[in-house]
Amino acid sequence: MTRELMQLVVDGIVEHSAEVRTLALVPAGGDLPGYVPGSNLPVEWRTGRFNSYSLTGDGFEPAAYTISVRRQPDGDGGSLWMHQLRVGQTIRARQPVSEFPPVWSARRHLLLAGGIGVTPIVSHARSHARWNHDFEVHYVARDHVLAAELAAAAGDKLHLHGSRSDFATTLTDLLVRQPVGTHLYVCGPESMIDAVREAALAACWPSTRVHSEPFAVTLAPGEPFTVRTSRSGRRVQVAPDETVLSALDAAGLSVRSQCRRGFCGECLTGVVSGDVIHRDDYLEAADRDAGEQMLICVSRARGELVLDL
Amino acid sequence: MTASESESESESETRMNVLADDEYENSRIEDFPFPLEKASIEPRVDVEPALAPRSTAAGTWGGRALLVNHNYERCVRIRSRILDRDPVRFTSLPHMLPAQWDAMLFLMRRLGSEYPDDFALTRRADGWLWTNRRLGLEREFAFGDLSSLGMEPLEYIGRQVQEDLLLLDHRSARLYVDTVLVTFSMGWSPTFVVGMNFHEVHGTVPRVMDDGTVDRSERFLSTMPIGELYRRNPWAFQIGGRLDRSKDAFPEWTPKADAYLADPRLDTVGTDVRMRSELSHFVRLPLTGAVLYTISVQSISLEQIASVPEWSASSMRVIKEVPDDLVHHKGFHVYGPLVLPYLERSS
């Protein structure tokens, strides 16, 4: 299902350093939807191409969406595009996506940030401050670009570390002195996440209390491909941000559907030929392997797909 | 038992189709969400995006997520009375307070946009103003400040909607029913399920655990895009229009229902027996990601069903074709012998 994109206007830019800038984005019209702490904003930097940036507010009634972007000269170009934006320009974004939420029932929240991974941690800290939750923040970086924002939310619960080796000496002590019921959230370079997970495991933390990976399933865009309908003889292009179902709808070919998220099985369609990428939550493994049917509301294909329609 | 209760009971004993003060006044067929347009009773993930109007053989329904109809004042009054008498029907674990605020704002916004003549949520410099013209209420409140509401947020809004409300928290890859404000449940106990996970809650429903329906439903609910509303429409038959058919209140309503079933009044079965729709909406709330699950109870009489030939036919078909293992769960062993002869006679 293609959701409408939001039009956002760049309202303010703060250059923290040559590498990192913060953008404040306001709606071109209407109100901005609130969001769960730790959410990210998929920004369209080239038609159909999105990069996701963590929102740093607490999500409540945001007057602006703020994101901080690190310049990645060897990336695919999205961050460089973000770095050439000027105040007053309009950009397009999807609704915020929650993939790194706080655990509301936690007795205490231990927040660990490395480098630009600090952005969702700022969001969490602001939310915990709002709700008077018990929390503590550790921010590991050479250059603490968002230290002021974190300090405003966390006060003396914020601890700055200048290097990973410096932090490594305190990590074990930090882990063993947390009360039972504490949840840990780490965002940073993969090597830091691995090190924290390892140390938490060694300190007998249940893995379900250590959060670093997105766990919500979202309908990510994919590569474009072509659908041919064997009975009605139509050819329809499926864009990266579309589904087979929405593309057929748009072409005036209506197919029965219900949940449109790959669960109910209503849009199950026969596959005549094609290399299907199953993304549903309905078909059994054996059915997938057979490749004779697919749920066209979520599943995609490589190259040309011929459907029994 | 109070004087008013004994009065209403003796009255309804003599004439069942006089509406008692704990009963729902039947919906109009023109906007009743008739659940059997597809005439399938197989349990499955029976969800669809909400807010799309659906046409039936008698009219349309579904353009709105919340119900405010001719029963509004009546439902709100019945719920408040139950909550006053049995306060645990609203139970919320402490960590759900942010989700309660989230849910309250969501419901107020929806009421304001779906029924702008009756409800309004207005932003003020230092908070909000909530206006409920149906009940003549105005309340200024500050988000997060309990004293500005005088009670917890879900109870505040729960006393102003027709829907039962549940909040589900997602943690450790499971959904937990951590908040209930449920006074109109059908055969289950809201106070018993608080704190249970999604699997535990559905342990008594035949089939759905083994065939993976519960698993898929849980994954569906916990991965809905934030803010997108979905719906489903479970249903059942019942005797009379009593809204509160909870296990908690068994002693209040089962003796009368049993007595009726032992000696059904065949001349009045068309008005005594009703089809009950429990149209449910669910959404992941914007600020906490908690799942808000709303259930709005409506009913129509067999007589009303019989007035629409398509509804009558699909009701009869569903009762006749229900698989054996679901007969008891749907109560068809009890209601089938009442409903089938009536609908056959009237068609």
UniProtKB/TrEMBL annotation, chain A:
Listed cofactors: FAD
2Fe-2S ferredoxin-type domain mapped to chain residues: 223-309
Start and end residues of each FAD-binding FR-type domain: 3-103
Keyword GTP-binding: no
CDD domains xref list: fer2, PDR_like
GO molecular-function term, one example from the UniProt record: oxidoreductase activity
PROSITE patterns according to UniProt: 2FE2S_FER_2, FAD_FR
Alphabetic keyword roster: 2Fe-2S, Flavoprotein, Iron, Iron-sulfur, Metal-binding, Oxidoreductase
InterPro entries associated with the record: 2Fe-2S_ferredoxin-like_sf, 2Fe-2S_ferredoxin-type, Beta-grasp_dom_sf, DmmA-like_N, FAD-bd_FR_type, FNR_nucleotide-bd, MRET, Riboflavin_synthase-like_b-brl
One family name in Pfam for this protein: Fer2
Record flagged with keyword rRNA-binding: no
Gene3D superfamilies from the UniProt entry: 3.10.20.30, Nucleotide-binding domain of ferredoxin-NADP reductase (FNR) module, Translation factors
UniProt xrefs under PANTHER family: CARNITINE MONOOXYGENASE REDUCTASE SUBUNIT, NADH OXIDOREDUCTASE HCR
Protein name (database record): Oxidoreductase
Organism: Streptomyces spongiae
